[in-house]
Amino acid sequence: MGRAKILILAVYLAGLIYVAASRELRARAGPRLVLLLSCAVLAFFWLFEGTKSNLYLPHILPWFCLLAAIAAAHLGTTGRVPRWLLALALAGVVLIQSSSTLLPAWRNAYRRQFLPAMQFLQQHSQPDDTIMSDAVAGFVLGFDRNLVDDAWFGYRTGKKADWLVITPTYDETMESLAQQHSDVSRHVKQLLAEYRPVYSNKMYRICVRKRSVAALREF
Among 37, 30, 123, 125, which Cα is nearest to 70's? Predict the structure, then answer.
């Protein structure tokens, strides 16, 4: 079902092209304004948003949805496309989108991936150990301990933690660093060489610093 999402992207792109190509729609103030604002939002994230993270999709997808809705309504009212065909296409979009919510809920990554990783860290780390991780770890470990959220792994601060927790967010950041910030990427690779992996599952990896004697005693 994850690959089927490309069909939704095709629907959104078709809506954008249809509204942009329709003189009748462009002549109307509402569709024209939506088209201009959509293009402005897309241009902003294309040119000025450096990480290109999927975290910003909520700022983009509503505009695509609105353009697709305008195109579908126009096609339905003008009779250019049978209404049953439009209804079938839109039902497919709803089905795929719903599965995108229901399937992750069924996989339950929170209980099966996140909690076991955090419980491992709780069991093996000391109260005064420093942990470098995505801030989400604070919901289990507590925000009152030595928890540092630094996706550049101390490139600017020089900090080195006793524990590194490679979360999905950090994985995405490291991929983008390799493409956009080669100097930071080299720093991250050199830093990771100072750590030893001690735990991993499908989404999280935990590493302990080799010089951290207190932590190494347990492994």
Answer: 30
